[in-house]
Hints:
Elements: E1 3-5, E2 14-20, E3 23-28, E4 33-37, E5 42-49, E6 51-55, E7 60-63, E8 68-71, E9 77-82, E10 89-96, H1 98-105, E11 120-121, H2 126-133, H3 147-164, H4 169-172, H5 183-190, H6 197-203, H7 208-219, H8 223-241, H9 246-252, H10 258-269
Antiparallel strand pairs: 1-4, 2-3, 3-10, 4-9, 5-8, 5-10, 6-7, 6-9, 8-11
Amino acid sequence: xxxxxxxxxxxxxxxxxxxxxxxxxxxxxxxxxxxxxxxxxxxxxxxxxxxxxxxxxxxxxxxxxxxxxxxxxxxxxxxxxxxxxxxxxxxxxxxxxxxxxxxxxxxxxxxxxxxxxxxxxxxxxxxxxxxxxxxxxxxxxxxxxxxxxxxxxxxxxxxxxxxxxxxxxxxxxxxxxxxxxxxxxxxxxxxxxxxxxxxxxxxxxxxxxxxxxxxxxxxxxxxxxxxxxxxxxxxxxxxxxxxxxxxxxxxxxxxxxxxxxxxxxxxxxxxxxxxxxxxx
Length: 280
C-alpha cells in the first residue's frame, strides 16, 4: 500500500500504465509529485528521467535520471518526484511482493543476520538497468501481459539484486510483520511523515485502539495534536536556521500543502512562515 498526497498534483499531469499489477510505468509532467510512502511490498525503481528526492528520518537522498534503487517494505519516507531539464519524471517500478519472494526463496538457504532496512541505490548497474529497460516495450502492448512472462521478469530482477548485492537476502527474505516497539522513540523519529494514524499504529506493532491508548499515556495528548505541534516546531527551526524556502519546509515536515502549512503556522506562532525569511 502507498499513501499519495495529490495536493500539488494535477491528475491530468500524472499517468500510470500497468502491464501487470506488479509492474508499472509512471509519467508526471507537473511541477512536483509528493508521495508519503510506507509500501507493503519492496519497490524496485528505475528512474528514466526527472529527479527523485527521498526524505528519510535521518537523511535526504537525491536521485537523478538513470538511478535504480530499492525501497524496502514498511520503510517510511517522503518522496518528491520532479520533472527536470525539460523532461517529465518517468520511472519503471516493480513491486516485489511477499508472495513472490516466498516462492523464490522456498528452496534456498538464506543466512539470516540482523540488518537495518534502508533504501539501496545501485548506481546504474548494467545488469539491473538492462533488466528494467527490457520492460519498456511491453507497456505498448494492447493484449494482456502473460503471467508467466511477468514471473520470469520479476524472478530475473530478484536474481540480479542477489548478484550485485551480497547483503540483500536478509532484507528480501524477511517475511516478519512489524512487532510492538517502543512508541516514544518511534514517533520522535518519524513524526514528519504525513501518514494516517492506522499506518503509524501498524508500523509500531499495535492496533489503532492500543496505539491511541499508549500514545496518550506517553505524551498526554492526542496523536493529531502532538504531530501538528512537532511538525510546526521542526518547521520553525528549519525556516530560521537553514536556507530552505517555506514550500520546501512544508513538504519536509509532513504538511499536505503550502496553504495548510501557512495557516497552521500562523495559528500556532501568531505570524506566517514568511515572517522568518529575514533570518535566512
